[in-house]
UniProtKB/TrEMBL annotation:
Residues 29-48 bind DNA. This is HTH tetR-type domain-containing protein. The keyword DNA-binding applies. Keywords: DNA-binding. Residues 6-66 form the HTH tetR-type domain. It comes from the Bacteria. The keyword DNA-binding applies. It holds the Pfam family TetR_N. InterPro entries: Homeodomain-like_sf, HTH-type_TetR-like_transc_reg, HTH_TetR, Tet_transcr_reg_TetR-rel_C_sf.
Length: 212
């Protein structure tokens, strides 16, 4: 393969994503990525310039995947009535959980950042988190202004509560009575968590009717 080979570039992206998600940016070296991909150490530099640039491209890809998922989920969504608002809010909850289940590297990458991983890469929250919050806020603000969401509701913390819960569950699951860890690979546990997430948001946001 030569520099610029699309297959090599994609291989590096996939391998690096897995390593960054598992070990964190700080604990993953360029040499590890090259070795895991079965490539010469120079390959990473030829394709991306360095580990930092590779990490930035991975986070950009994750952002675009998440944004596309949310935009598709909210196509045709309405908040003109309290009932439509409830449907839209629950759709957001479901789609965010489903996205994290389909892309398990996503919550792992961000949880590493919560633990100050790649702390020298300071712009990611402004570049990728703020736009997502703004996007969802723009969808729900008319409903809040119209009173379709309960007046005491802090939508910012409601949103973050969903993120915290989903990331934590996807990464750690829950303990059963014997102390064994159960998680996303158990459909009963997953649906129980999904139901809890819906009830939590429904009650916190004081939405009309009963949660799905």
């Amino acid at each position: 393969m030569t520099s610029g080979d699309g297959g090599r570039r994609e291989l590096i992206l996939q391998v690096a994503t897995r390593l960054f998600a598992a070990l964190g940016y700080d604990s993953t070296s360029a040499a590890q990525i090259a070795e895991a991909a079965g490539l010469d150490p120079e390959a990473l530099g030829e394709e991306f310039g360095g580990k930092r640039e590779l990490y930035l491209e991975i986070m950009e890809r994750e952002y675009r995947a998440e944004r596309g998922f949310l935009e598709k989920a909210l196509e045709g969504a309405s908040v003109e009535t309290p009932e439509q608002t409830a449907v839209t809010v629950h759709r957001i909850v479901d789609q965010y959980l489903d996205f994290c289940l389909a892309h398990p590297e996503f919550p792992s990458l961000w949880m590493h950042r919560w633990l100050s991983d790649a702390s020298d890469v300071t712009e990611l929250e402004r570049r990728y988190i703020r736009p997502q919050i703004t996007f969802i806020s723009n969808v729900l603000t008319p409903a809040v202004d119209a009173g379709h969401v309960g007046a005491p509701t802090d939508m910012k913390y409601t949103f973050w509560s969903v993120v915290w819960c989903v990331h934590g569950f996807c990464q750690s699951g829950v303990l059963d009575r014997a102390g064994d860890r159960q998680g996303v690979d158990d459909p009963v546990v997953l649906e129980r968590f999904r139901g809890y997430l819906h009830r939590m948001v429904h009650r916190v946001a004081l939405l009309p009717g009963s949660p799905p």
